[in-house]
Amino acid sequence: MAVAQVVQEDVQVRETGWSPAEIAELREAVSRAPSIHNSRPWTLTLHRRTAVLRENPEPWMNHDPEGRDRRISCGAALMNLVLAVRSLGWGAQVEVGDSSGLVSAAVNARGAAEPSPRELAWAWAVAQRRSHRAPFSRRPVSELLREKITDAATGVRCGSRWVGSDVEAVEVARMLGRAASAFHADPDYTRELAAHVKPDGRRLQRESGDLRGLAAVGLTALTTHLPDEHHLAQLLRDESVLLVGTRGDRPADHVRAGQAVERAWLEATRAGLSVSMMTQPLHLPEVRTGLAERLGTSLIPQVIMRFGYPAES
């Protein structure tokens, strides 16, 4: 009988075919994935030449009532896991499923296969990636780089769209402002946010109180300084804002959105850009629908991403 050996609290190893160095690389790649509120809502299990990522069975929270954030976070971790397997020189066959409302993804290493230059560049960027919630500088992101980011985000049943014109910026600002006001006025939500402690020991409410600008509407609490819609529209015009969406809205689609987010983030990171993402406004069905209608897209909005160059301190 095989006995599971817990290598780290979030990794289990059973009759593995992975070397200790490979195990360390797989774990490191997964641990560096972006996750909403740094929650890391997954467990990694290694068995023979298969790596399985499973969503943790935690209770639903008011700030993530449908588990969207958890599944998007798992998707980003899955992308990093695939890149780690590929960078080790293995082919990667991915199977995503869900059972009892929880998603899982198996990455099977199938024979030797050299990674592409793009995969190697993304794998390198995994360790460099950071979340930047502060305002950006006024230096614009080039159209060529924007095209590379949208190309990276494109995948099976998922894609992305930039917020472009002044009219679109105004419409998106209205939707984000309404969402922020709704969360700001929800006592159950703000109470939960005030009590929530992240794995690093910081309280979400304190973190949200420090946010300014567009990032503030992505994590709204009683202490958040919300910009007015006019200011929001100006920020949307000044920054490069990308809407990542999917063709469907099932658990597997949320995982795909997370994979798309991480690909776009890594592509931006390798080019020297800073990035942050927000999902909170998109928890409201009317905001998802409204954004899709106003931007004229058939995609179901899942994540809003900000791209830019950091402002000089």
From TrEMBL:
It holds the Pfam family Nitroreductase. One of its GO terms (molecular function) is oxidoreductase activity. Residues 126-309 form the Nitroreductase domain. InterPro entries: Nitroreductase, Nitroreductase-like, Nitroreductase/BluB. Gene3D superfamilies: NADH Oxidase. It comes from the Bacteria. SUPFAM superfamilies: FMN-dependent nitroreductase-like. PANTHER family: NAD(P)H NITROREDUCTASE RV3131-RELATED (PTHR23026:SF123), NADPH NITROREDUCTASE (PTHR23026). This is Nitroreductase domain-containing protein. It comes from Saccharopolyspora rhizosphaerae. The lineage of its organism: Bacteria, Bacillati, Actinomycetota, Actinomycetes, Pseudonocardiales.
